[in-house]
Write a structure and sequence with these properties.
2 copies of one chain form a homodimer. Chain A is α/β, with parallel strands linked by helices and about 450 residues long. The first copy, chain A, has 2 domains: about 5-135 and about 320-450, nicotinate phosphoribosyltransferase (Alpha-Beta Barrel), CATH 3.20.140; about 145-315, TIM Barrel. Helix content of chain A is about 40%, strand content about 20%. In chain A, strands 13-12-1-5-3-17-18 form a 7-stranded antiparallel β-sheet.
């Protein structure tokens, strides 16, 4: 496992070699880097910002210990002067950021980092990693939650997330995005997220008869029983659940739900509902799981599936159809000895906008999002400023909102994004303009660089 | 971050509720669970086993501490008797496993766990998570390495892996699969994997002129300079690299390589090669990166790209086209009070094979893999046994091989898998049979269960 005290080395080697060369060549300017996503992945029409808390804690605590220095020295490529510098390294920069839960779009900075170039450069890899995972998952999970229309969605993905850290962050990010909770017990403990879960097929199989497994379970959890009914034959399973639950109900307890985990969920849910109702169990819910994602949930509800809640696993937990965002961290300005040098690169298909920026959001008369403008910071523009200053001189200056609060923010923001931008496929393209100032600077710089090259 | 001491709670809640009910109902049989992958993901034709070391360390050290017990108690669903049991929990079972680096196929057990049912059940979530990530990545990376045909591949994915843990495990699994190293410095320290990296576009942009950045870098790393040449105009960049390197070469140093990171890499590499050769830099290599994967590498080499090594990032690090394996953990046998009860489920599309198993591999006369047979353990069958006993009564009884050794195992195994099974797309389907004993048991059990249901 990765220990937080080792985060300083959780970086690409080139961050360290570049920093060694900045150090050796006395390149000491103040750099501004934008962290943003270049394009929308397939079927995505917006992003949900997440991962800021981890990013800020990383910057605040970034430190090289003796073991790290010893390891770097053993590579025999770094000079002692630079290694001594690293021993006393501290991040002293400023950060503007989109609050977690913000709806945003390509090219809008999620983080804007201003610091001496070595410090800002060194942070690149970790910041990208932290923002990428949680933003990817929060975005995916928000789609699942929207598709489920008010019905609770529970994160069931831990067994197939990409590692332990992802298991935790998926629980967090999907809760931010509106999930009702997670199956991940540790996430419940660490993040205070509600945890859910009852039984797997192995439990049913561990008893000679299916109904025995239900009776045994309800003896242990008389008021919290959800029976998994599809181990052998789903509808017979529902009938057995109804019978097995009689004793329970006679003793004043209530069956909470049954769970369907395979087969034609739309049709099975309707039949299961009839069996339950006929057996006087109309209070018992129907929980569905089994390779679900936003597309399948939308289809199930269109088909009139009688499902009260969804367990969604792998497809959400790895963001199966778009397992990463094309997130990048680009140098946009460098001021050296009083000389301000906005920068951009011209690599094919990878052109970047120069300068420190602010993002403005324009609302329509109902308060709904109409368009965004990416402008230079300080440029006069209408709209609500989305980037807030969250770190100054290496210290966190914002109050970290609770997960509940971030979850609320996400919900509010998504409610202001018109429906046409929230279709699961072929959604309308939200308008993001660049300001006059930004266009002017880009054109000017483009010309200067082309003359130079 | 997830601390190893918290692994006991890194599990789905239902593992704990099931265990509580096994405990309450005195279900104490010895259970056998198979961990296997149901299907080949799209474009995959084999798997590379990885993640066993983590899995075994988890089982060996599994322990609930006071904080965990307190948290579980606070949920108000567990009885004190069960919580007391957890306080003294220890995994005491046996494990058979495919050694890391083994080539394997769907339905072949990767792990076979035999233990009192509570212990075996509790381990499910973590074991799936550990095996899934590393097996998914080792499999993907082996494809990239095969496509690169002898040319080194370096893992560049850390910035967009799904979290910190994945960043480490991707470096490990891709090294096992044959990558030459990683950009991840911490993986270099923890796993002793070679680390690689030189400069990013931001470094080039931090200097007023491109050539200044090259000169500055080579001053710091005179014998280890790889210049990134595509920040503004790739071929002009190569020319500048050649000029900037003159001084370096005159002082007896050598330019190591240039790196291309965008554009038409096949055509650019040929032009760059000509420029370098004309400038007396035929010793300098050409390193390519930029959204590469096995498909693009295969295409580049087909087009005659003059590339000496590849940096492969996100597509490999998240296994973009198949970001998980459909790995499951199924109860296959339960012996209770002397009564042996092989088990299987009949859920639609999710039928499992009962009984404890062994996998046999049959070679052709040249020693190449011809077919596998999944048999009952103890059943007489020809071929090499793939599953080895690695844990007995909760203790690891095998020597953990070094990463170098696992890497060698992978290479040897893949060399014995005929070419037709290693095509990137539309590969031939490797034959995996089930033994007579297994078929007989499956049919018998199917009948028994259908009569019961």
């Amino acid at each position: 496992m990765v220990d937080e005290k080792d985060f300083a080395l959780l970086t690409d080697l080139y961050e360290l070699t570049m920093c060694a060369s900045y150090f050796g060549n006395k390149v000491k300017g103040i750099a501004a880097f934008d962290l943003f996503i270049r394009d929308l992945p397939q079927n995505r029409s917006y992003f949900i910002a997440a991962g800021l808390e981890d990013a800020l804690n990383y910057l605040k605590n970034l430190k090289f210990n003796d073991e790290h220095i010893k390891f770097l020295k053993s590579k025999k490529i770094f000079k002692d002067g630079f290694l001594n510098y690293l021993k006393n390294f501290k991040f002293t920069g400023d950060v503007f950021a989109l609050p977690e839960g913000t709806v945003f779009f390509p090219n809008e900075p999620i983080l804007s980092v201003t610091a001496p170039i070595i410090e800002a450069q060194l942070a690149e890899t970790f910041l990208l990693n932290a923002i990428n995972l949680q933003t990817t998952i929060a975005t995916k999970a928000s789609r699942v939650v929207l598709a489920a229309k008010q019905k609770p969605v529970v994160d069931f993905s831990l067994r197939r997330t990409q590692g332990a850290d992802a298991g935790m962050k998926v629980a967090r990010a999907s809760y931010i995005a509106g999930c009702a909770g997670t199956s991940n017990v540790l996430a419940g403990m660490k993040y205070k997220i509600p945890v859910y879960g009852t039984m797997a097929h192995s439990f049913v199989m561990a008893f000679e008869k299916e109904e025995e497994s239900f009776e045994a379970y309800s003896k242990t959890f008389p008021d919290a029983s959800t029976f998994l009914v599809d181990t052998y034959d789903t509808l017979k399973g529902v009938e057995k659940a109804a019978v097995a639950t009689k004793k329970l109900e006679n003793q004043g307890h209530k069956l909470k739900a049954i769970r369907l985990d395979s087969g034609d969920l739309a049709s099975l849910s309707k039949s299961a509902r009839r069996i339950l109702d006929k057996s006087g169990l109309s209070h018992a819910g129907i929980f569905a799981s089994g390779s679900l994602d936003e597309y399948k949930i939308e289809e199930l509800l269109k088909k009139g599936a009688v499902i009260d809640a969804f367990g969604v696993g792998t497809a959400m937990g790895v963001s199966k159809d778009a397992p990463y965002c094309d997130v990048v961290y680009k140098l946009v300005e460098l001021s050296d000895h009083g000389r301000l040098l906005p920068t951009m690169k011209l690599s094919k298909g990878k052109v970047t906008y120069p300068g420190k920026k602010q993002v403005y959001r324009i609302a329509d008369k109902n308060g709904n999002y109409a368009k965004d403008i990416i402008a230079l910071r300080g440029e006069k523009t209408n709209g609500q400023q989305l980037l807030a200053k969250v770190m100054e001189k290496g210290e966190i200056i914002c109050k970290m909102p609770s997960l509940e609060k971030i979850r609320e923010t996400t919900k509010n923001n998504l409610s202001k994004l018109p429906e046409k931008y929230k279709q699961l496929k072929n959604a309308a393209s939200y308008k993001v303009e660049t300001s006059r100032g930004l266009i002017k600077l880009t054109l000017k710089l483009n010309k200067t660089i082309r003359e130079k090259v």
